[in-house]
Write a structure and sequence with these properties.
Layout: H1 3-8, E1 27-30, H2 35-39, E2 43-50, E3 53-57, H3 61-68
Antiparallel strand pairs: 1-3, 2-3
């Protein structure tokens, strides 16, 4: 399921984690909603998804570069928790 995204981030290696909030990777693959990531400033790569997986870019130089090129979705508002 992650083949398209894995190809896109090549030659970077992929690691698997059970808790994406504990990872320090610049690119995290996950669902289309990630309240903790959004709250921490992560943004989704625009129009890049595969079988429900999306590429989230954490704050840093890579996110700055992709934002400057207009390749990231707008900043997501974290969902309010009742």
């Amino acid at each position: 399921m992650q083949n398209f995204l894995a190809y896109w981030i090549h030659p970077t290696t992929m690691g698997v984690t059970t808790d994406r909030n504990a990872s320090d990777a610049q690119i995290t693959l996950g669902c289309d909603t990630w309240p903790e990531g959004s709250a921490a400033g992560a943004r989704m790569l625009s129009d890049v998804h595969s079988y429900g997986y999306h590429a989230w870019i954490r704050p840093g130089p890579l996110q700055d570069e992709l934002a400057a090129e207009g390749l990231l979705d707008p900043v997501a508002e974290p969902a309010a928790v009742p």
